[in-house]
Structures are given as structure tokens and as C-alpha cells.
Amino acid sequence: MGTRLVRLGDELQLERIPVEISPHKRYTQIGIRSFGRGIFHREEMYGTELSKLRYFEILPERLIVSNIMAWEGAIAVSAEEDFGCIGSSRFLSYTPSENIDIRYLNYFFQSSQGQRAIRKTSTGTVLRNQTLSIKDFEDLLVPLPDSDEQRRIATRLDSSSSRIAAVQTAREHAQTLREALRHSVLSRAGMLRPLGEVIRRANSEEPVDPSKTYDIAGVYGFGRGLFERGPMQGNETSYQKLNRLSSGRLVMSRLKAFEGALAIIPREFDGWYLSPEFPTFEIDTTRADERYLMNICMWPGLWERLSGQSKGIGARKVRVSADRLLSTEVPLPALDEQRLIADQLDKLNQSKALSIYNDTNIESLSSALLNAAFGSQL
């Protein structure tokens, strides 16, 4: 594929059409998802509800770039359905010359090569505070084939992207059905009883040794279990104590329990550590099935009960106490029935794990297609 290096500013024109905000008119703002996932529309709101930023019209067939998240692939092409929406000054809108197929350019910026180029134009000392420099962006030299080749590649990637999106939509629908089934089963599982009848506080706190290395875990939100944060030297934390994990116990994030940051500790995390912000609880296995409680941890019905019992000011400072978890009522049928329900829900969890594995493969395929396209292999 023959290409020539082109300065972006010679082929793209920054378009700014100011919108005079009326307090009594309703507006729909756009947003751009990261990793090339396109434009979305926010809920309508009155002019009085908008921020103090400046706003501009969004027109179709423009390259729209988020100046604060471009480094993470928040770049997209506007479509007819975006006409009439507005974008804040954080969104840069570019009109292409006749030499540019903006679909091709958008795909280029989602490829590894394009992402590296974008990151060079984003300034900031903190990763999540990097802002796109308009001048550096427009001074970028990008490799462009002729117009026909751009259209050919963009059309092939459009076709592949549509198929991948259809698969992802089907998987999201399946996940919705899985969670609806879990909710239905657990909601009808039995009499509501306090969790404190089957679990008790069982922290295993150890004084921090500055010279020791600790394997630190974390707890995902939305019932997704534990993850590895990695090793940490004792002198790298301000905590005086750390909580040593034991498999088979229930662990909760005091800060994010209301968002489903609860789990049963699996064997592979036995002996790992968490901060004291993560209390742990021993399960009375004569009265509760570990697998059943794992599903309770994954159940939004529990999270909703905890969300109304959180304390703190501001979304990032809400905490759920250990006592509150113990007093929260959940369906607790007899032990034999818990085991039968757990058997049913295990099949759902296996299906979910397979779906997550397949999603990872699909993301890898999408990345491979983009890199092939811009490596003269498509």
C-alpha cells in the first residue's frame, strides 16, 4: 500500500459553531466512549442544568475528538442521529477535505500506531489528566494512502466492526437474561434473615513490617470477585495493619459494597492481603452454603439493600459498616435448598465466565484487524 505522510491540519479543519444556551430550552449533549466505541447521547436537560462550559453544534460526518480522553481512543465519526446535539468545548469537531475518508482516519486512531501518535499530542503529568494539544494534533504527520484505498480499508473495517458489534450486543442481551434469572431465583429463595445468622466478623490483621513484601488484592465492583493488585513493600503503605485473607471467607469493601464489591475469597487468594477497609467474615458452613453466598454477593438485590444504609458525604466517600452488612436481610432457605439453588446458579456463572473469555477474544480480534489494516495486511 503506497502512502504519503500528511499533516493533519492541512486536511482537517476545526469547526466551531457556538450555541447560545437558552435557560428554558432542552439540550442533548454527546459523549464519546473510550476505545473506539463511538458517540452516545446524554439525557436531555434544560440550559440551566448545563455546566458553565461553552457549547457547540454537532453536525454529521465530522471527526469528533475528546480533548481529555483522546489518548484512550475517545475519537469517533458523527452520524445523522447526532444532528441537533451539542458538544462542550472539550469536544473538537473536524471537517475533512476531499482527500480524507474520516472513517479511515478514525480507524487509524484506534490502531496501535494511531494511539501512539495521539498520546504524543496529549500533555499532562497524570495519566487521567492528559489533555490533547490542538496544535500538536494538527501538526501530526499521518500516513495516508490514496482516497480509493482509504475507502476500501474503511469499508472492510466497517463490515468487520458491524459483525463484532452484533456479537457483543447478543452477549450483552444474554448477560441481562442471566442476571434476571439470578434475581428471579434468589428473590423467591426463602424467608429473609439477617446475614449475621450465618457469617461472623473474622479479620486476620497483622502489623505491617516495613521490610516485608505483601501480595495485595482488590475487590471488583458488581460482583466480579477479587483481582491482583500486585506486590507492595511494607514501607509503601501508611496502614499500620493489613488484613490477611483466608479462602472461603466473605470479603467486603466498606467503600464500594453498595456497588457490589463483595466476594467469597477463592483458594488462589489465600494468604494475600487487603487494607483494613476490607473486613472479612467467616461462614458458618452448618447453616450456609459457600456457593449460595457467592451468588448472594453477586446479587443486585443485596447491593440495593446496602446502598440505602451507607454513610458519608459524596459518592466517593460512602461507606458500609461491617455491622450493617451483618444486619442486612437476604433470602436464607434451609441448607439443602441453598445447595440446590447454588447448583442451578453455578451453570449461569459458568456461562458468564465463558462469555467474558469470548469477549476478551473478540477485543483481541478487533485490535488485530486494526493493526493488520494499518500494517498493509488487510
Automatic annotation (TrEMBL):
SUPFAM superfamilies: DNA methylase specificity domain
One function term, GO molecular function aspect: endonuclease activity
Family: Belongs to the type-I restriction system S methylase family.
Keywords: DNA-binding, Endonuclease, Hydrolase, Nuclease, Restriction system
Protein origin, superkingdom: Bacteria
InterPro entries: Restrct_endonuc_typeI_TRD (IPR000055), Restrct_endonuc_typeI_TRD_sf (IPR044946), Type-I_RS_S_subunit (IPR052021)
Name under which the protein is recorded: Restriction endonuclease subunit S
Domain Type I restriction modification DNA specificity, residue spans: 73-163
